[in-house]
Amino acid sequence: MHLYSGTTLDFVEDSTHNRIAEKISDNFQAHYRYRPGQSEVASWRNSLRSMADVVRTGDFFDHGIVVELQLPLSSRRLDCMVTGTDAGGKPEAVIVELKQWETAGPSWVDDCVSTFVGGRSRDVLHPSRQVGNYERYLLDVHSTFSEGRVGLASCAYLHNMNRAGASTVLDDVFRPLMQRSPVFIADQVDDLVGYLDANVGGGSGAEVLDAVVRGGYRPHKRLLDHVATMIDNDPVFVLLDDQQVAFNAVLAKVRARQLATTPSVILVRGGPGTGKSVIAVNLVAELARQGLVVHHATGSKAFTETLRKRLGNRAGALFKYFNNFTTAEPGEFDVLICDEAHRIRLTSNHRFTRAAQRSDRTQIDELVQSAKVSVFFIDDLQVVRPGEVGSSTLIRQGADDNDAEWSEFELETQFRCGGSDSYIRWVANTLDLDRTPDVMWNTGEEFDFDVVDSVEELEALIRAKAAEGHTARLAAGYCWPWSNPTPDGLLVPDVKVGDWSMPWNAKPDAGRLAPGIPKANFWASDPAGIEQVGCVYTAQGFEYDYAGVIFGRDLVYRPRDGWVGQPEHSHDSVVKKSARRDPAGFTRMVQHTYRVLLTRGMRGCYVYFQDDTTRDFFLSRMERPRR
Predict the structure, then answer these.
(1) Given this model, what pLDDT does residue 271 score?
(2) Alpha carbons 441 and 618: distance in angstroms, whole number
(3) pLDDT digits (tens, 9 = 90+) for 265-285
(4) Fewer CB in 10 Å around end: N or C, the chain?
(5) Which residues lie below 8 Å from residue 121, measured CB to CB, with a gap of 6+?
(6) Radius of gyration of the chain (CA)
């Protein structure tokens, strides 16, 4: 999908007569079914006028141009692409990222600068890194470029930035990025013209443009091989015991169904620590190695972004979100691996989806229909937000509704919590989420679980474990406000218990953060995360050696009533709002929340309870080993 394409001659004509932004706006409304904001329209008008000046200066009038080209299977759109041929007559295209920035400052985040965007100063990718990533993505997944029919280059044009404001952007630290994807500022029009001339100066761009807009989504074998190699070389993704058995079983099923004419669904169920995500990532590696078009998808931004960071930007092309498949054709992919499937939502609509653009199509239908085989990894007791409807029942129903053959596997062996199945079952039993025989917890077990008397003692234990070389984190129920960072990027110590306080992890949309503070997505994996308290949304899907949990007053135990949800003590606005229409549902979601937090630890978990009666109930379920 794109919002404008044609010859460069028409493009200059439309820009000169102030028609370009209106044409793009009309196409935007036709596609998205709502009008773009005035700021976006103004941005098109200003940036594309500057681009038209470049085309005019270079006499690039025998070329093609496409504006706002959507990256395949992504919500991202390229600003501009010019097509033509090089001096030898080879078809070529150049991506031009257009920026209206006037200045930018330094950032402590790798490959980033800071600039004022969206009402605040933010850390954003250096333009060369941003446009270079777009180039790499298209070379890997867009058939016109991945098959070598058209060459591709990229650059950025900061048409409002003069020398005084460009010192950070042009700093030598970014030289390796700029050597691949150069940056041009306001007084470098001639240099930009020279770059375009070297790549597409031969003209004859109309046929090249047609090949670009007609190209389809197809990950190239070199990308699939790269992803497989990255996963194979990472010791975190080694399969053990039951995981290998489940991996082999699912792989055999996938192979058997590739020639089927109807979709297939495979459901893999398992509790915390059974290795669902390890199996999922290894399936991506093996299926990619075999040349199958495979994607991994979740509903968790923190989990997906951490995987992308661990495997590298290029491998990230295969790691998507559940709502990325709204436009996928039926059976477009060989295999879709759906991890954390309990986070599937009713539809792919979200709070920013305009009313006219909302779809009645269910998300489970989108996922099942997009692939020949879809594999769902799920823990039915991890739904922690209203709107998350993922369950084994939903997936089975989704398979039936789409006439898909389905099969099911159960993971049992525990690789977290000291390998203690009994601890996982005890937590579920104690929280009244499952009836298991594990009523009492024997503190003599290898897994180190204990209740502490103060939050200061809890923090000291977690820091001591980190000092010994273990990974350790503090997390809490969502029982305190969550402030935006201060103007200098520092976090506010919102989590307060008596005289003790500590900040939450950074908000996902926090903007620019002070040096040393990890972004929300990386709280669980960045060592600096120990300086903040994590919430369930940044902890879910991750594990660390030792978990410290602050058990708040949003969930308490009362001897006569059992578990009682207390929404007046919750600061999770979405979950709290649900309590008005469904008090029992609120209680169940908070029970799930604490089950998640209490089962993140590989070696141990320590808990501080704000409510004394709740603490005493947990203690009554613990027994010391006999001497």
Answers:
(1) 85
(2) 9
(3) 999 998 887 888 889 999 999
(4) C
(5) 105, 114, 115, 511, 512
(6) 27
322, burial (CB in 10 Å: exposed 0-12, middle 13-18, buried 19+): buried
**Cut 0.70: pTM above it:** yes
Give the residues across from 562 on adjacent strands: 558
Q: Is 352 exposed, middle or buried (0-12, 13-18, 19+ CB in 10 A)?
A: exposed
Q: Which of 8-22, 227-241, 277-291, 399-413 has the lowest mean pLDDT?
A: 227-241
**Residue bearing tokens 């192979």:** 255
Q: How far apart are CA 338 and CA 390, in angstroms?
A: 11
pLDDT at 313 (0 to 100): 77
Q: How many CB atoms lie within 10 A of CB 493?
A: 15
The helices-and-strands tally (H runs, E runs) of the chain is 20, 26
Delimit the domains of the chain by residue range: 2-214, 221-410, 417-623
Residue 524's SS3 state is coil
Q: How far apart are CA 291 and CA 309, in angstroms?
A: 23
**CB neighbour class for 176 (10 Å; exposed up to 12, middle 13-18, buried from 19):** exposed
Sheet of 151-158, strand order: 2-7, 64-70, 77-85, 91-99, 151-158, 183-185
Contact 195, 184 (CB under 8 A): yes
Type of residue numbered 459: E
CATH 3.40.50.1820 fits 221-410, yes or no: no
Please report where in the chains the tokens 């700093």 appear, as a residue: 171
418 pLDDT more than 70: no
Pairing of strands 112-117, 105-106: antiparallel
The CA distances from residue 510 to 53, 123, 488, in Å, are: 37, 10, 12
Tokens representing 217 are 């989504």
User: What's the CA gap between 541 and 475, in Å, rounded?
Assistant: 14
Average pLDDT, the chain: 90
Distance CA 37, CA 329 (A): 30
- Rounded Cα distance, 543 and 532, in Å: 16
| One-character DSSP codes across 327-341 | TPPTT-EEEEEE-SG
